[in-house]
Amino acid sequence: MKLVKAIIKPERFEFVKKALEDKGFVSMTTSEIRGRGAQKGISLEYRGGLMTVDMLPKIQIEIVAKESDIDAVITTITDAARTGKIGDGKIFVIPVEKAIRIRTGEVEV
């Protein structure tokens, strides 16, 4: 099993969620986070002055999936989140040793 951690623009979340659901990946955890990448934030005009916002709002999606499903999850997220502009996000894939269902004690390896 692998943990797919995707950091995307908030305005793309509903597109990503729907695309994942359509492919059968319904289980996920989400968090509202702030971060920045290589662009180091953005400059905005506010009340006639220039203001730099260096920590931008993002959505973090976490999905634990079988090894055989990882490429499909990554492709689905990438296709739905991509705008072609700076700040589209990043996906990380992390190994998961085991998962234990608290209600039943069932162990998945």
SSE blueprint:
Elements: E1 2-8, H1 13-22, E2 29-35, E3 42-46, E4 49-53, E5 56-65, H2 70-81, E6 89-95, E7 99-100, E8 107-108
Antiparallel strand pairs: 1-5, 1-6, 2-5, 3-4, 7-8
Describe, in short, the structure shown.
With 109 residues, this protein is α+β, with helices and mostly antiparallel strands. Helices cover 20% and strands 41% of the residues.
* Sheet with most strands: 4 strands, antiparallel
Give start-end ranges of low-pLDDT stretches: none
Number of helices: 2
- Kindly report the CATH topology: Alpha-Beta Plaits
- Judged by helices, strands and strand pairing, the structural class is alpha+beta
Say how many strands there are: 8
Q: What percentage of the residues does DSSP assign to strands (E)?
A: 35-45%
For the record, the count of structural domains works out to: 1
Helix content range:
10-25%
Radius of gyration: 17 Å
CATH class: Alpha Beta
Q: What is the averaged pLDDT score?
A: 92
Give the SSE string. Answer: EHEEEEHEEE
**Distance between the ends:** 7 Å
Q: Please tell me what the overall shape is.
A: elongated
Mind telling me which CATH architecture this is? 2-Layer Sandwich
Strand sequence of the main sheet, in spatial order? 2-5-1-6
